[in-house]
Amino acid sequence: MSWQTRINDAVAARKEAAAFRVRQPNNGGSARFLTQGDKRYLNFSGNDYLGLSQDADVIAAWQKGAEKYGVGSGGSGHVTGYSVVHAEFEQQLAQWQGYPRALLFISGFAANQAILAALMQGDDRVLADKLSHASLLEAAAHAPSQLRRFHHNQPDSLQRLLKKPVDGETLVVTEGVFSMDGDGAPLAELHRLAQSHDSWLMVDDAHGVGVLGEEGRGSCWQQGVRPELLVVTFGKAFGCSGAAVLCDDATADYLVQFARHLIYSTAMPAAQVCALQAALARVRQEDGLRDKLAANIARFRAGASGLPYRLTASQTAIQPVIVGENQPALDLAATLRERGLWVSAIRPPTVPPGSARLRLTLTAAHRPEDIDFLLESLHGCSY
After folding, report:
1. Catalytic, out of 133, 261, 292, 366
2. Residue 187 pLDDT class (50, 70, 90 cuts)
3. Is residue 236 among the annotated active site residues?
4. Among this protein's residues, is 38 annotated catalytic?
5. Strand pairing of 125-129 and 146-150?
6. 162-192 CB burial, b ≥16 within 10 A, e <16
7. Is 175 annotated in the active site?
């Protein structure tokens, strides 16, 4: 088989299965609206849960940072890319989350890949929730250690795996809030089981930090858990991009020595870090925005109860409407878009076969009438 045949066959198979991905350029948007061409849509597909991507303080901080530091970092953090503002923000994050150290990464994907690649060795094993994010499962699959997956949010399944002997160390991996189903992990029980078997827990809280817990500290704080490794990302509630790993001093020193994504990637621009500092200040003080988001979630769930589609038990901003097969999910998304609602159909392999869905996301920027229009449209499309 030639390269071209391999590529053509793979693309054709995706198209045949109604699973072909297409990027659609837009003219920019916000948590509430998205514009494409000359048409504006109510946006129910983004992860800007608190609307901070359009916050005046955050934007001003980025602009001031660019004036002072320029628009790039100029190198890896191990060379010239680590500035005083990077160090200051890491200290602020560590204090906020109650950890000794924080390390900044260019993305959540990079942070997850870096941790697993740096920590895991041949005699070790990763025990990951079956529905963990692709960045976690891919990194675990490529690491020299074993990868075993436990049933989604089922501590008993994890316990059975923990009881099996292993020569090396064990790392239990999960998300705080799962990106496709919107449900939360039983973190306290998972951590208890991990500790009882001398194992560590790693939590990716991309979709929990900023919106859950006191001052938006996230899923772990809300459940009274401090995992050995906590990943927080800034592309959701913070309205920006990037990520950080929270850990103890020894682990941070180890990652600085051995995390290749940290060592060999160009560092996050200092101007962006300035924006993140402003976003952190807003996150910590914005109980009002979190209350608005909670009210929008409750309003949606109350109105969606009569839909002929399966909903998950999610109480978070992620509200999946599970259609089933790929083409019906695409058709429903297209119909809603004709009505001025920007929604996305998520299909395998991102989600399990037979669970194609609309991954609806709610934000604090949405108004009650936006939620009502979404519900009216969904009910209108279901008959």
Report:
1. 133
2. very high
3. yes
4. no
5. parallel
6. beeebeebbbbbbbbbbbbbbbbbbbebbbe
7. yes
